């Protein structure tokens, strides 16, 4: 599969790498990746949307891939939700687009659900892939995760600047092989595990011999090489900085009206142990115009694991609502 080469736009103080397929006059769909991903994560979706007549746009987000981003501990606040959403508004400005449909997976999903709260006039629709709309909680989310899961939970562990990235950057190809695996078990089986095995302490598994890792490898050699080259270039610091802004984002969004009025599609994966399908229960309170689906037998990496099923759901909804 030939993935397009990027063009570059200046937005919000960064030079963003943008990959496109489809007609320039098609309804624009901006696809936002999560961690540890890049625009290439949408390689199966872009041609499907383009074939359906949509303008598929996928950026390497701030800190990732050919976009990269500011470095150093002082730069951590430059990865907060205001910067991440303003990057996308600036992307539309650079492409001379008034509005777009925003699709997001993992952390990209958190960003696209914030777009209609911060830039409502730029959002025609929202597609959440695995990531639901998550309302602001009553306590600092990092303190909440620390209380429930402990210090080894990966998001809590990521709060230490410079620690996790050194571990992952020691052997980038190995790191990508660790992350990109099909879910080793059904969600129901995960729920039966003892509590000490459910604290999401992925780094303990990462330290073990590769032969002990659960789940089938998801990437072929060409795909692994593409991801490896990207992260050898950018490193992991920028991407992990997104996690270091959980507390700051919680503080910044105090008092924010939590209502998404744009047409929205939520696609969950039945066996994603972090972004569980039941997290979408009650979303309609915040997202009134909402359609929901669950892809069976699918773990966290939905775009790669079940591309045809995801493409069909996205294209069908897009044609019905924007065709």
**What is the mean pLDDT?**
95
- Total strands: the figure is 8
Strand and helix order: EEEHEHEHEHHHHHHHHHEEHH
What is the CATH T-level topology?
A: Rossmann fold
Shape: globular
Number of H- or I-type helical stretches: 14
The oligomeric state of the chains shown is single chain
| Termini gap | 27 Å
- CATH class wording: Alpha Beta
- Helix content range: 25-40%
| Rg for CA atoms | 18 Å
Query: Structural class, judged by helices and strands?
Result: alpha/beta
Give me the side-by-side strand order of the main sheet. Answer: 1-2-4-3-5-6-7-8
- Total tally of structural domains: 1
What is the second-level CATH architecture?
3-Layer(aba) Sandwich
Under CATH, the homologous superfamily reads Alpha/Beta hydrolase fold, catalytic domain
Low-confidence stretches: none
Binned strand content = 5-15%
Brief account:
The protein has 323 residues and is of the alpha/beta class. It is built from 14 helices and eight strands.
Written description of the protein model:
The chain is α/β, with parallel strands linked by helices and 323 residues long. The protein has one domain (7-322): Rossmann fold. The protein is built from 14 helices and eight strands. The chain has helices spanning 45-51, 81-94, 107-118, 141-149, 154-157, 163-169, 172-179, 187-191, 202-206, 221-234, 237-243, 246-252, 302-305, 307-322, and strands at residues 7-11, 14-21, 28-32, 55-59, 100-105, 123-129, 264-269, 290-295. Strands 1-2-4-3-5-6-7-8 form an eight-stranded mixed beta sheet, with helices on both faces. α1 (45-51) links the parallel β3 and β4. α2 crosses α3 (107-118) and α7 (172-179) packs across α10. It is globular and about 50 Å long. The mean pLDDT is 95.
